[in-house]
Amino acid sequence: MTCISGVLATVLPRELSLVFMVLPYLVSMIAVLYLFLKQHRRAPTVEERKRFTLSLNLLFWLFNLSGFFLGLLWTSFSEPEIWQYTIKMLFQPATLMIIGLFFIVIALPLIAVTFWFYGKQAERMALKMFGHRY
């Protein structure tokens, strides 16, 4: 799913590409909760919510970083100097500031949505599926 979303993100306009960047995260978040509910027959505890939130966000950023480096690798076949240019630009203060803002703008909402989804929404789903919350 991530590969398909990544390919579509490169073809579509920027606004839609952001949706396709986050779509695999949302699908995996829902799938993991569904599997957890089926297996444990209860909503996650606060500690489990924190662990799921941290794990899913870590995977999200690792997939995006791997996509970034695979894109660089792919580009380096035709332009070998792209690595030197990227390293030089990556450690510029302005670039680091943009990366930090990008991280905050995407990570904080994902953390909030995931923590909420594995809390109140999970309780509602467990109540509907099994007739109890815990």
UniProtKB/TrEMBL annotation:
Keywords: Membrane, Transmembrane, Transmembrane helix. It comes from the Bacteria. The chain crosses the membrane at residues 16-37, 58-77, 97-119. The keyword Transmembrane applies. This is Uncharacterized protein. The lineage of its organism: Bacteria, Pseudomonadati, Pseudomonadota, Gammaproteobacteria, Moraxellales.
